């Protein structure tokens, strides 16, 4: 199937590694021009070079901190200028810190709202004028299975990602008449560097093996394993592509069946 992404102009936020980098690579494999961003210039440059080397597609790296409003303005305007417009926006960011209610100070709530919710709001606000000029505009928010099924000791993710879902569904309603599609992916356990770091920390803490730590998390998942970042990315790229032209307002889990709710 031709996804129709050749020459499309894409911005994937938070993309020097992990889910964002995997999505950027997959867009580039489909012939799209891709802008990526992160705070660390060296890592971002290395990711851009590796995507270019593998795909030959144009990759535009911009150093930006998604918790800084001016950085988001500069990021979006430089991408729109460089590509002469924008067709696809993926709002992604680093995850908020873990913790229970008692362990979470007020400042952590404020910071997580900026990182998880307001970065998406600001990216969409800044990108919308350009997306409105595209004939195949799509926005994808990256949330988590935690919006369907709260995860223990992930209070901030469980709470604030719900607001991103409210934003996604509302925008699907408001922007649908203009032909702009807005969807969300709810990733389950995916073997990114962040998850590998978490597994390694637990191996050290509990004296277990990496395999035992993975088994703890996957024994109730129907597919009995974590996803690869590429498995997330292929769904992300399809949802944003013209091939999914009648899909909007959808909350798509990429979780190996982890969410057990019937609706
Ligand atoms: P990751 O830590 O591997 O990658 C995060 C990326 O975001 C990196 O490129 C990092 O440089 C960038 N980043 C972080 N904070 C930033 C900031 N303030 N400004 C700009 N860039 C920033 O994480 P990941 O596993 O790829 O997860 C991505 C998102 O998906 C996170 O919000 C995470 O909580 C969520 N998620 C991940 C999983 C999973 O299993 N991996 C599951 C559900 C949800």
Summarize the structure.
With 263 residues, the protein is of the alpha/beta class. It has two domains: 9-188 and 229-253, Rossmann fold (3-Layer(aba) Sandwich); 190-226, no CATH class. The protein is 47% helix and 13% strand.
Describe the structure.
- This protein has about 260 residues and is of the alpha/beta class.
- The chain has helices at about 20-30, 40-55, 70-85, 105-130, 155-175, 195-205, 210-220, 230-240; strands spanning about 10, 35-40, 60-65, 90, 140, 180-185, 250-255.
- A seven-stranded parallel sheet has the order 3-2-1-4-5-6-7, with helices on both faces.
- Strand 5 (about 140), helix 5 and strand 6 form a beta-alpha-beta unit.
- Helix 1 (about 20-30) runs parallel beside helix 2 and helix 3 (about 70-85) runs parallel beside helix 4 (about 105-130).
- The model has no long low-confidence stretch (mean pLDDT about 95).
- Nicotinamide-adenine-dinucleotide binds next to helix 1, strand 2 and helix 6.
- Nicotinamide-adenine-dinucleotide binds near residues 18, 67, 142 and 192.
């Amino acid at each position: 199937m031709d996804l129709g992404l050749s020459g499309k102009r894409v911005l994937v936020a938070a993309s020097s590694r992990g889910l964002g980098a995997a999505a950027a690579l997959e867009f580039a494999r489909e012939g799209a021009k891709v802008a990526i961003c992160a705070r660390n210039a060296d890592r971002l440059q290395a990711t851009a070079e590796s995507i270019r080397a593998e795909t030959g597609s144009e990759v535009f790296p911009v150093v930006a901190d998604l918790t800084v409003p001016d950085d988001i303005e500069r990021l979006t305007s430089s991408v729109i200028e460089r590509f002469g417009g924008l067709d696809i926006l993926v709002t992604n960011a680093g995850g908020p810190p873990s913790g229970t209610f008692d362990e979470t100070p007020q400042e952590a709530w404020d910071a997580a709202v900026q990182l998880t919710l307001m970065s998406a709001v600001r990216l969409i606000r800044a990108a919308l004028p350009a997306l409105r000029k595209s004939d195949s505009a799509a926005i994808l928010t990256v949330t988590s299975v935690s919006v369907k099924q709260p995860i223990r000791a992930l209070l901030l993710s469980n709470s604030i990602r719900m607001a991103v879902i409210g934003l996604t569904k509302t925008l699907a309603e408001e922007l649908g008449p203009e032909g702009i599609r807005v969807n969300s992916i709810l990733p389950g356990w995916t073997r990114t560097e962040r998850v590998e770091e978490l597994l390694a920390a637990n191996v050290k803490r509990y004296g277990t093996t990496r395999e035992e730590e993975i088994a703890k998390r996957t024994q109730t998942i129907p597919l009995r394993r974590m996803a690869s970042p590429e498995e997330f990315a292929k769904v992300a790229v399809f949802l944003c592509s013209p091939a999914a032209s009648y899909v909007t307002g959808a909350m798509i889990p990429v979780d190996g069946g982890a969410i057990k709710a019937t609706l």
